Amino acid sequence: MAEVKKTAKKAPVKKATAKAVKPAAKVAAPKAAKEVAKTAVKKVAAKKAVAKKEVVAKVEAAPVVEAVAEAKAPVAEAKTSVAEVKVEIKAEKAEVKTEAKEVKVEVRPVASKDPEFNLQEMLELGCHLGHKSSKWHPKMAEYIYSEKDGIHLFDLPKVSALLEEAYSFVYNLAKEGKTIVLVGTKKQAREVIKEAALDASCFYITARWMGGMLTNWPQVSKSIKRMEEIREGLNTGKYNGYTKYERVQLEKEQIKLERFFGGLKGLKAKPDCLFVIDPKKEHIVVEEANNVNVPVIALIDSDSDPRPVKFVVPGNDDAVKSIKFFVDQITAAYKAGRADRK
Q: Band of the pLDDT at 14, cuts 50, 70, 90?
C-alpha cells in the first residue's frame, strides 16, 4: 500500500511539467518566426541595393563603351579593307597561275618548213639519256656520245640533225597529201600520241597492234568500214527495230572495233609512213612495214637495233617529256606540210 501511494503522488508532477513545457514552446515559436522574417527582409534589401549599384554602374559606363566602340569601328573597317585587298591580290595571283598553266598546256612547236631545235631544251627534257650500258645494242654506237654512271648518253647534235631529216620527210609527205600513222602502245606514249594525233588531224594506234594491219589490209579495211557503219547506225537510230539483245551485241562489237581501229577512222588505203615509239617493243609493226615497203620513222633508244628503220631518231623513249618533244616535232612537220599544200 505504501508503494501505491508513492506512485500516485509522482504522477501529477509529470503532468504538471508537461503542461509547463507546452506554453514555453508556444512562446519560442513566434520568436523564431520573427527572426527568420527579419533575415529574409535584410536579404531582399541587400539584393535591391546590389541591383541599384549595378544599374548605376552600367549607366555610368555606357558612354565609355560607346566611345570604345566608336574608336574600334575605324580599326575594324581598316582590317576588313586590308582583308579584301589581300583576297583580291590572292585572286589575281590565282588567275595568273591558271593562265600560265593553260599556256603551258597549249604550247606546241610552231609548224614551219625549216625547224630549229634547241639543244638546251632537249638536254633539260632528258632526250639524251639512253639505257644501261649493259643492255645496249652495238649498232647504236655511232649515236652515243659517252657513258656516265652506267648509262649511255646520246650525241645531241647528231640527234638534232637526224630529227631535222625526219622532219623534212614528214613535211614533204604531208605537202603531197599522203598519210602517216603514229604508233605508240607503251603506257608512257599512249596519251601523248593520241593528243598529238588529234591536234594534227592524223591517224594513230595506241592499243595493241593487230597482226596483219598492213600485210592483210583488205580485211582491216573491212573492219574499219564495219566500225563506221555500226557507229552511224547507233547514232541515227537505224537499229531501233532490233531486239535489245541484238543492240547490245552491236554495241559490244563497236567497243571492240573502236579499241583497235578507232584512231584509223577515215583511212581509205594503206598509210604512206609510220612513226613508231620504241621499235624494240613494236617489232611486228616494223617487220610488216618493211614487207610492204612502208617507210618507218622511229624513236630509238640505245637498246634497239636501228637497221630495220629508215629514219632513225635516237633518244629517250621511256620518259614522257622526251616522247612528247619528238612527237610534237613530227606532228608540227605534218601540220606545216598540210598548211602549205592548201
A: very low
